[in-house]
Amino acid sequence: MDEEAKMRTCHLLDLPWEDVLVPHILCYLPLQHLVSLQRVSKQFHSLIQVYLANCRTFDLSSIGPSISKEAFCSMLKDNKVLHSLHLQSCSDWVTDKELLPVIGQNQHLQRVDMSGCVSLTRHSMVAVSLSCMHLKHLGLAHCEWVDSLSLRSLADHCGGLQSIDLTACRQLKDDAICYLAKKCLKLRSLSLAVNANVTDESVEEVAKNCRGLEHLDLTGCLRVRNQSIKTLAEYCPKLQSLKVNHCHNVTESSLDPLRKRNVVIDVEPPLQRALVLLQDVLGFAPFINLQI
Question: Which residues are listed as membrane-spanning (predicted)?
Fold first, then answer.
């Protein structure tokens, strides 16, 4: 066998595409490298399209700001097997027009992150609700277009939801959050941070219905008080972390029982906070026997 024949038999594209290259090689390459490979030749372009049509996870976090709407639509036009879709870095350009076709043909999606996608509307969320019955994780942080009706639609159709990030979804009020809690009993992680509409009513409803809750973020929920935190401690034995920074009506009387269960809380106990302040003033921390 001559040298040229040896080189031909070892050519990368001679390997089986769907049995070897796609599942065992291309799946380890970052998306930006795959996009670059498309430009090498027509064959590589075809290979990458085969990969994109069969990938289960599509994460644009590394190239989102630099990709065009047309490229996004082209990359996912043949994919019907997505399980995970991350769009948080596409906030500058993604709209319902680009997203709705992708959601409509991917009914097996389990994880969708639309955090910060300010140009989307409630139509995208309703589409996710109606198409993605197996949805488990949803990111909607800083999506101020999320309203009560779209959240209720989600609750009605995605009862298996395990985590949802509603940080700074400021249109939402207690009624919608309580409805979500009653419908999505498997919630393990919930963020209601930076929403002045959230009160004890929401927190208590979540605590009483979502007994498997592990992580709750109430950062900046100014109307949350001790009573709901005590209810949380009573009904959620699996709680692992609680964020209550800037919740000025939540005091150590409700947090101490959770600390004794080793729940991670983002607010230091009063004595430790006082020591930190004292150290800032004096430049050193005085010795205090905490066992006294």
Answer: none
